[in-house]
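#onboarding

Welcome to the new folks! Below is a worked example of what a typical request in this channel looks like: someone posts a single protein sequence, and someone else replies with the predicted structure as tokens. Don't worry about understanding the tokens yet, we'll cover that in week two.

Example request:
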Amino acid sequence: MTKLDIYCEEYDFSALAQAFGGEVAADCPLALEIIFTDKQEIRRLNNEFRKNDKATDVLSFPTLDGICGKELKAKDFPFDVDGDGVLFLGSIAICTEVAKEQAEEYGHPYERELNYLAAHGVCHLLGYDHMTEEDKPVMRAMEEKVLAKMHLTRD
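Example response:
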């Protein structure tokens, strides 16, 4: 099982990290960070990086390209491995205001929505995408698989 650390000052995502650890093949420990933000900041980031001037729920900033479904080997990413041998996957920004609104709209707990958005972001950091009809079910299956391990299903 691959060791994955999720660094977040505001929330404990250790269960999500453990759930993803069994889904990623790597010869080194992995790490990523999650920050929480408000609507104003997520809108600014969305506009700056995606040219979409509106608040969104989650944005991902991967450091690695072309890694979806591949075994991650430290030797392949020498500039992304730190002095302790940890491979950094990237950063995720989650708007807690939008997450709370969506949890209410979808009728499930905030914890489920927060973990779904984090799982969605982690999938992007691992190279998954949902922009084509071909890619979407693959990414959704990974999100649901990880959340099911955490007992955070849609039911």
